[in-house]
Amino acid sequence: TLLSVALAFDLGASSGRALIGELTDECGRQQLRVTEIHRFPNRPVQVGRHLHWDILQLLQEVKGGIRKAFQQGYAVESFGIDTWGVDFGLLDANGELLGNPYHYRDPHTDGLIAEIGALIGKGELYEQGGLQSMPFNTIYQLYAMKKADSPQLQAAQTLLLTPDLLVYFLTGCKVCEFTMATTTQLYMPLEQVWNTRLMERLDIPARIFLEPSLPGTLVGPLADDVCLELNVPKIDAVAVGTHDTESAVVAVPAPPGPFAYLVCGTWSLLGTELDTPIISEEARELEFSNEGGVGGTYQLLKNIMGLWILQECKREWDERDETVSFQELAEEARSAAPFRSMIDPDDARFYGPGGMPGKIQSYCRETNQPVPESKGEHARCILESLALRYRQALDQTERLAGQRFDGLHMVGGGIQNELLCRFTACALGRPVWSGPVEASAIGNLLVQFIAKGKCADLQHARRLVAASFPIDTYEPLDDRAEWDFAYRRFIALTGTP
Ligand code: LFR
Fold first, then answer.
1. Residue from 87, 164, 236, 244 carrying the catalytic annotation
2. pLDDT tens-digit profile of 332-352?
3. Which of 208, 314, 416, 439 could bond to 411 as cystine, CB 3.0-4.6 Å?
4. How far is the CA of 10 from the centre of ligand 1 (A)?
């Protein structure tokens, strides 16, 4: 029997998708069945000096997904939207969008980590926000606008983070979902309030921030004009764990008890789930984030540059008309020589778009290593370096949380790269359990089911994931000594054990 049907939109930095989730019960055995009904590219647009999201196109695709769900006969009861963190739109006093939202890789935040760090004090910033200072954090974006005397910021009445903005366009209801709020670096996770004093000191208007709503909050029904336009009934929007990373963590099929995970996509988020933030001296030195999660959790995690580096290489090669698929890249990496050269994936040069193969070459040249020439050598260098970085981040997570983990759960689109999963198991010397791929969309659906009382809690949700999706296990191979040796080289290169 069919217990409930929900619709999830998961928007990533390069594509978005809509998935139907059907919660079923066969003789007391509950399962979640998901079907992808819509997928679309997310193409940022450069306008003058700025890089923007095409927010109206994204809205159009979300509307298209809602229409398709009903056209295909699904009796959808609710929908939820999750996206990447930190980005936002500003509304004026009439509730209209002011300008096109900036893309988090817009260079207008260059240099602002140092500037705000000097103004406020790095220690104080960390003690209050509990976040790794990343150039894209909302705080730096708003400060960039303030420094540019942005008329938009002056006119702004309300700030809506991307998922909340899309939900607002569809329902007319304004909320600020909690997990996204905690990515701004303007929220205080220990006190659980906005950091209005910090806003004042930076001249960021406190009036634009709404009181956060917890994941699972019912936002409101689709607006009448949207129902008319799409010819669909008035289904409810649920504020899920609207930050994609937090939705993905909901879908980690871990049994009860502490576990370590890696959400693997454009970014790699590696960490563990806790009840309270850890804002210690050591956490600050290692720059770990405490992000608000679903169900009263905090996620202690490290943000690592991730498959972005490989995606950018591929984009460059495709543009040079040397088109290559991720599959082919993995094949070529497999046959390239092991441990020839390695990079620190978090070196700042890899953050911005463009020229990625050249950046890898210059990094290797500067660090007196053999310079990768072929595509396979580049890909091997990236994948091995990421695996080594994961080992380092897992060690650090264990130290901070005072836990030892038997293995690592990997979820998200990046796990389709089997070589990366295998390298990670080898680098860790521990098993990797991979799956599900569509973790964010699945977590999004599960929070909708929790909101409607169809699923009890996080533990129930994770049992459902384990019962519904295949999980692959990668065991480390017997090349331990080589990986240990490579790890020592990696530590010497990056300078932080
Ligand atoms: C992953 C993610 C990360 C966040 C980065 C930028 O998609 O949401 O958690 O740090 O994107 O928003």
1. 244
2. 999 999 999 999 999 999 999
3. 439
4. 12
